[in-house]
Amino acid sequence: MRTMTFNVLCAGRNEHQWCRRQPLVRDVIKNYMPDFFGIQEAHYGWMKYLSGQLKDYYAYVGVGKDDGINGGEFSPVFYRKDKHKALENLDFWLSETPDKASLGWDGAENRTCSGALFVCLETGEKIAVFNTHLDHIGETAQKKGAELILEKLKKYDNIKTVLMGDFNVTPDSEIYGIFTNGGFDDARTIASESDNINSFHWFGGASKMIDFVFVKNIKNVSKVKTATDKPHGKYPSDHYPVVADFE
C-alpha cells in the first residue's frame, strides 16, 4: 500500500502560479499512483482540477476550511476508488469548536483535519486515513491542534491508521513529539529504507522537513522517500511530496 502527502501551494506567483503548475502536480501523482494521497493548500480550483483529471482512479473526502463546503483551502484524502471504499467520513476544525468552521486559539487561519475509515475491497481489512495542515504561526494552535487530532482519532486506536500532512514543524519540535509520544510512528524512522531529503524547499531555496506520514498499528514500512520529481524540469510546488510504502 502506498500513501503520499503533498502540499501543492495554494496560489503562487509569476512562473509558479498555480494554474501553470496544475499538470506538473497531476503528473507527479500519476507517476506514483498512491492508494491514498493527502494534499494541502488546495483551494476549490485545485480540487476541481485534480478530481476531474484523476476521476478515473480517485474519489476524495474533505471540505473547505472556511465554510465546510467549498470555501477556502481543503486538506482532503483522495483514495483509489477501485481498491477502497469510504465507510465513514470525519472532518473537524482545529479549534475550540471543532464541529463547525472556526479559527482556533492563536491561529492565523482556519485549519482542518479530514479523512475516513476505509475498507479494502479485496481483503475486507479496514484502515483509517487522515490528512491535516497545522497552523504556521500560532504556537498554541499547533499544540492544541495536535492534541485535538490525537483525541479525535482515539476511536481508531485498534485499527491501522495513517495521519499525514504539512505539520509546519520539524522533527526536533514539541509538536512532533506530541504525535510520536501519542502512539504514532513517523513512517520514515521505522522504514526499512528511507532518504533524508527535506520536503519543503521553496523552489530550490532554504529547506526543512515539515511534511510527514505518521502511522499507528503499522510496523512493516518498507520505504519512505521524498519525491523530488520535476516534470519537464519544473518544480510542481514549493514542497516535495513524501511517499510511504507499507504492507
Write the layout of secondary structure elements.
Elements: E1 2-7, H1 18-32, E2 36-40, H2 44-53, E3 58-61, E4 77-80, E5 84-93, E6 112-120, E7 126-133, H3 139-152, E8 160-166, H4 174-180, E9 185-186, H5 187-190, E10 193-194, E11 211-216, E12 221-226, E13 242-246
Parallel strand pairs: 1-2, 7-8, 10-12
Antiparallel strand pairs: 1-13, 2-4, 3-4, 5-6, 6-7, 8-11, 9-11, 12-13
Helix pairs in contact: 3-4
What do these coordinates show?
- Helices cover 20% and strands 30% of the residues.
- With 247 residues, the chain is α+β, with helices and mostly antiparallel strands.
- The protein has a single domain, classed as Deoxyribonuclease I, Chain A, CATH 3.60.10.10.
- β7, α3 and β8 form a beta-alpha-beta unit.
- The termini are close together.
- The mean pLDDT is 97.
Name the overall outline.
Answer: globular
What is the residue-mean pLDDT, rounded to a whole number?
Answer: 97
Please give the order of strands in the largest beta sheet: 3-4-2-1-13-12-10
CATH fold-level name: Deoxyribonuclease I, Chain A
Beginning-to-end CA distance, first to last residue? 6 Å
CATH class descriptor: Alpha Beta
What percent of residues adopt helix (DSSP H or I)? 10-25%
- Sheet with most strands: 7 strands, mixed
Please count the helical segments.
5
CATH architecture: 4-Layer Sandwich
Kindly provide the radius of gyration, computed on alpha-carbon positions and rounded to a whole number of angstroms. Answer: 16 Å
Oligomer description:
single chain
Count of all domains = 1
% residues in beta strands: 25-35%
Number of strands: 13
CATH homologous superfamily caption: Endonuclease/exonuclease/phosphatase
List SSEs in N-to-C order.
EHEHEEEEEHEHEHEEEE
Return the structural class.
alpha+beta
Low-confidence stretches: none
